[in-house]
Amino acid sequence: MISGVLLDVDDIEVTYGKARAVNGATVRVPRGSITAIVGPNGAGKTTLLKAVCGLQPLRAGHIRWNGSRIDGRASREIAALGIAHVPEGRRIFGKMTVLENLRLGAYLRNDAAEVARTLDMVFQAFPRLKERQTQRSGSLSGGEQQMLAIGRALMASPTLIMADEMSQGLAPVIVQEVYRRLLEVNRQGVTILLVEQNARLAFTLAQLVYVMEQGRVVLEGPSAEVAASEHVQKAYLGVS
User: Fold this and answer.
1) 1 pLDDT higher than 50
2) Could you report the per-residue pLDDT of 81-95, keeping only the tens digit for each?
3) Long-range CB pairs of 48-52, under 8 A, 24+ apart, other chains included
4) I need a surface site. Which of 85, 147, 166, 174 has the fewest CB within 10 A?
């Protein structure tokens, strides 16, 4: 069930020195949705997620969560609101075990019984992580590491998961498994914001799609409508 705007990124500008990485982008994520942002490398997609997390300051614009502004707040405070980030490249701690990585995801929580219940839920969603919970995370396969990155985000009991380029470097069959698990998470009520270069995959998964190019949103709307546009057909879906 999709209803109301959960995350409202309104006309933001983000710079690195004099270079504008995001230039007046607006993205609205409805509660309960899977929303995707697609676009080429350097389009500003990852920077937009970092801005939402408080990892990159805004030069202009606003970011609202449940109607209240969060731009300018510390990343720890933003995470505590229920926003979890699965960064590009997974960023797991390879020398730590699977279980230790997962428990790190719950570092802001004090409710031990609820954390234990969340861990059980993560193991149900990702049985392979349960099988390998005592194994060093660096020895996992790429797909298993991606599952661990999602599981660690879930340990925060988030309302929104922002996932950056989850298909990167994975075999197609593994990508399908990872995203199948993410769909199950969404069905349990967690809102998903995807950044994904694999446009076909994004259009299949998401209800709403934003296309970013050179820091701007150039197309937006229901996935079927955006996918039908001539520009997307030629530039992203390989239809001549």
Assistant:
1) no
2) 999 998 887 788 989
3) 48/9, 48/12, 48/14, 48/22, 48/195, 48/212, 49/85, 49/162, 49/164, 49/193, 49/195, 50/14, 51/9, 51/12, 51/14, 51/22, 52/7, 52/9, 52/78, 52/83, 52/162
4) 174
Helices assigned H by DSSP within 81-237: 98-104, 112-125, 127-131, 142-154, 172-187, 199-205, 223-227, 230-235
* Confidence at residue 161, expressed as pLDDT on a 0 to 100 scale: 95
The answer to whether 77 touches 18, Cβ cutoff 8 Å, is: no
**67: amino acid identity, one letter:** G
Closest-CA residue to 97 (of 154, 151, 177): 151
Tell me what the mean pLDDT of segment 101-117 comes to.
Answer: 92
- Structure token digits, residue 146: 């991606």
Let me know if 168 is exposed, middle or buried by CB neighbors in 10 A (0-12, 13-18, 19+).
middle
